[in-house]
Amino acid sequence: MASLIDPASITTTEQAPKLRRRPEWIRVRVPNGENYDFLKRLMRTKQLHTVCEEALCPNIGECWGSGTATFLIMGDICTRSCGFCDIKTGRPLPLDWEEPARVAEAVRAMNLRHVVITSVNRDERKDGGAPIFALVIQRIREVQPGCSIEVLIPDFKGSEAALKIVMDARPEILNHNVETVPRLFKKVQPQDKYEWALTTLRNARRMQPDVLTKSGIMLGLGEEMDEVKAVMRDLADCGVDILTIGQYLQPSRQHLPLERYYLMEEFEELRQYGLDLGYKWVESGPLVRSSYHAEQQVRALSPMYRESAAV
Fold first, then answer.
1. Smallest Cα–Cα separation from 71: which of 92, 88, 57?
2. Residue 209, C-beta contacts closer than 8 angstroms, at least 6 positions apart
3. Closest C-alpha among 141, 162, 276, 148 to residue 211
4. Which residues, including other chains, have CB under 8 Å from residue 299's CB and lie 6 or more apart?
5. What residues pair up with 1 in beta bridges, in sequence order?
6. 54: CB partners within 8 A, 6+ apart
7. Domain layout of the chain by residue ranges
8. Alpha-carbon dihedral of residues 99, 102, 103, 106, nearest 10 degrees?
9. Per-residue pLDDT tens for 17-70?
10. Contact yes or no for 77/86 (Cβ under 8 A)
């Protein structure tokens, strides 16, 4: 979920005055600290990208301060132009087949117990870049045994063959964000399809039943509460284990306008609704993003880690 910091809640003149001031319950700490500085230098020296930086994540200070990060692979140029995302759109460079080794080296240097790997869309390739995901998983397993891996993947246009390449590498968590409700799909992510998202998650569950599946939704783009709950039911029907729900924050004036802020009580209502639907974990709050508390999720839910904790 890549919608992120909205400096001073930037809005267009057409928006209602109430959206000009950020609510009291949305507060982002300025990123700093020794670990933050170390990770920033590490990413630059290894020519790596993080979605934390590219998407202006509001939790970058908290996560980098504790020594965790979400790696953005396959470059920093996306072939799609989603209206909520701050990652550049254009023609990407050729895939860098040495990148998986550099990511793995960074994971080892950071001594991570859990890592999240995501990517831009690479629609110029039939496989969507799926082999790079598989190689990253393989390289991390080689150099950092015991580190759990979550992959936040594109929809690969619903390609079962591309998804199978990733699933055969057996990450602990397979994540694909649906982002919004069907009515707003073409407005929010014009090159995506709701059916592709559901197909990806359903097929992932079928291919590797013991791999946790995960998805996420943004709020504040003009959806109605009953539409959000309908999406939650659809995702539950696909067997999704973990759901993240967060507040959309407009990255700039050129991005989709923020329609409204949700109240903390509404986030809690959706969290409880998700648990009632049978989700194993629901992370719901204004600053929640895809990888927020990701390590806690895998430690609590993955059979391998539950068994090791019980020993």
1. 57
2. none
3. 148
4. 114, 148, 305, 309
5. none
6. 2, 72, 76, 86, 87
7. 7-11+22-310
8. -160
9. 444 567 766 666 555 555 556 666 665 665 565 555 555 555 555 555 555 668
10. no
Strands (E), 31-73: 49-50, 70-73
113 CB burial (10 A radius; 0-12, 13-18, 19+): middle
Unique residue bearing structure tokens 């209502």: 269
CA distance 193 to 1: 16
Is there a contact between 220 and 18 (Cβ–Cβ < 8 Å)?
A: no
pTM for this structure? Answer: 0.83
- The percent of residues above 70 in pLDDT, for the chain, comes to 76
Residue labelled with tokens 């986030």? 267
Nearest residue to 122 (alpha-carbon basis) of 110, 130, 113, 111:
130
Question: Angle at Cα 88 formed by Cα 119 and Cα 185, nearest 5°?
Answer: 75
How far apart, in whole angstroms, are the C-alpha atoms of residue 240 and residue 107?
A: 27
| Nearest partner of 73 among 43, 46, 100, 111, judged by Cα | 100
User: Residue 46 is which amino acid?
Assistant: K
Helices 160-168 and 194-207: crossing angle in degrees, nearest 10, is: 40
Q: How many residues does the chain have?
A: 311
Which tokens in the block code for residue 61? 């200070």
Q: What's the token pair of residue 192?
A: 């995506």
The residue ranges of DSSP E strands in the chain, in sequence order, are: 49-50, 70-73, 77-78, 88-89, 114-119, 148-152, 173-175, 212-219, 242-247, 281-284
Q: How far is CA 284 from CA 8, 12, 17, 288, in A?
A: 23, 27, 26, 6
Q: Tokens for 175, please give them.
A: 């994540």
Q: Domain 7-11+22-310 is of which CATH architecture?
A: Alpha-Beta Barrel (3.20)
Residue with tokens 């793995």: 104
Q: How confident is the model at residue 82 (pLDDT cuts 50, 70, 90)?
A: confident
pLDDT digits (tens, 9 = 90+) for 221-253: 999 999 999 999 999 999 999 999 999 988 888
